[in-house]
Sequence to fold (735 residues):
Amino acid sequence: MFLSISLKAQTKENPALLRKQIAASKESPQKIALLQKLSDFYINKRGEAKKDLDSAVILNNEAMKLSLKIKDDLGRGKSMLLDAKINKERGNKEAAFSKVKNSITYFENHKMTEQTGEGYEELSFLYDNDPKNFDAKIKLKEKALALFKSSGSKLKQASVLKDLGELYMIKGDSDKSIEMLKQSLAIYQSLKYQETQGVYNFLTQAEIQKANYEEALKYGIAAEKAAINTNDNTLQLSSIYSNVGMVYYYLRQNDDAMRYWEKALDVAKKNKDNGYVRTVANNMSTMLIRQRKFDQAIAMIKEYKAKYPIDDKQFEMTEDYILFSTYTIKKQFRNAEIYYKKLVSYYGENAERHNNQTSLLRSFVFYHYQTKNYPAMYREATLFDSLAKKNGNDMLRSENHLIWFKADSTQGKYLDAIEHYQLYKKFSDSVFNGEKSKQISSLKIQFETDQKDKNIELLTQKGKLQEIQITNDTFIKYVFIGSIVVLILFILLIYNRSRLKTNANKKLELKRKQIDEQNDQLKKLLAEKEWLVKEIHHRVKNNLQIVISLLNTQSAYLDNEDALMAIQNSQHRMHAMSLIHQKLYQTDNLSTIDMSWYIYELVNYIRECYSSENKIKFTVRAEKVFLDVAQAVPMGLIINEAVINTTKYAFPDDKIGEVVISFKNIGNGDYELMVSDNGVGLPDDFDIEETESLGMNLMRGLTDQLDGNFSLENKNGLKITIIFRKNTEIEAHEK
Fold:
């Protein structure tokens, strides 16, 4: 199941601020633009409440009157288009079509290229996602794209390309979809546009259609990262989690798939969207089916259907499809036949009206095979294979040919069965070849690393042997020029040298065996050392957690606020150190920490502890820098002190503000940590040398531990800057 629901654009405008700006504006094009912006906010506001659309109408009418009064042609055209959007939201499709076309004619007559493109784009939105409308939608979006290119509106080009990519994906043309989406992504990246998670998410789905799971996982993780970086907690995040889970599902990494689907379900529930909740729940039911927990899967579908009702016939058909497949697997053909008839009645015998025709056809093929309706099975299997071939999905083709092979075998068509089995193996191998190659490459790198020292030693020995051989050849050349006596002496010498060489070779062979044994022992010692170091980090982390728990228990018996605050601060400091040891024992790198990950996790923990996300915005700009534990611990404690102090004191009386945490390489081996805010700052009479603040003194002491420079800037808030030199001794030792 694919969660490819088009997300309605959500504006980020502040309606209260817009109303103030409108009230303060004179009659001008700027006021018209503000009225239209606020009207558009109410049009796109989630829920489509009648009062919101009424507000949108009032504001747009006011903008239209003003544009006619001051003869603002652009403002008038935009109000015409907004009027069409309002009719669309109210369900007046016929009126919306007419008004959009009128606005397009108006824009064309006034040579407003970009706005004409907006008109064609809006016209495409009036068609629903019935497959028969796809070609019309694509043509309209291509017209809009050409106009946006002509007007130089790159952001709108990227948006239309993303929509085209989604349409081609739903249509089943994965290659075309990926081409459009990559063009969209390139434009967004050239503009340094941050909210690219939607494009990455569609790329994930398109690569899933092609069974290119390595690429799909890469794009899915990129979508997740972009969503987190832009604080996107909308339904789009649920879609991203669901699609990453789908990739893991196809890779048969069941635990990872369920973990992502659980996150997707949580986001969908928080956004109170029944369609998304049911879709993710259906995905999870397919995992139960894979685990042969059929009754649990059926119960889950029925439970969520009752708890989260939606009025969507096509969605109901999707759940009927799962139930049909489940009953077919259970060989409860009487129940399966009920849902088969429903699906055929809605989508057609060949599922030609289903958005993802291949998935439904696959179930039809299996159903006909199970019920021994071989003529119908062969007909559906032939169509299914052609569609999967068109999409480039070798995994689906392999499954199809496996069923084909079984059907031929059952009927005694052994030559045909062999042919289909060979095709099954061919396509199955092509799906997983890339993954195997990746594993082989990884093993090869590991092997080459282990053998590096040994190879150097063997090459040295080989060079010495070659040097001996060259000396012997030269000696023979001159001996043969001499007399017979010299020849006899030479033969004796050769004999003697042969013995020496044999003895030398025996010694070399003995040494080689000794070196091999030593290398094996060193490998065992290294493995034991790594295990011990990991165990140490694990136990340190556990001990810190125990201390945190003890402090937490102790705080329950204290009434003194200062004591409670001291215990809480100590807990935060211990958590900062615990994060480092936790990361070290979970990864193969036992000596250094990725500070970009660490800073993000630490700041996120502090934000959750103080529940300050509603009034304080935290921005983390950390480069991927690896520090050893000796530097990571004091740096983590500094960040902990700085951010907590800012959270507590920089924004009194629920003042809204921003805290920026930056860590970067400033050249010449120096690194800069900066924690700044736009809060109230320090008092004017603050003297850092005379302060008794434990946090401030702790940060200075930790800076000295880093051999760094500590500075404060008390202007428009407080900025703490620490510059230090990275410890490279561990890196040099590892090299």
Residues 595-734 form a domain with the Heat Shock Protein 90 fold (CATH 3.30.565.10). Residues 1-10, 439-451 have pLDDT under 50 and may be disordered. Residues 178 and 203 are 6 Å apart (CA to CA).
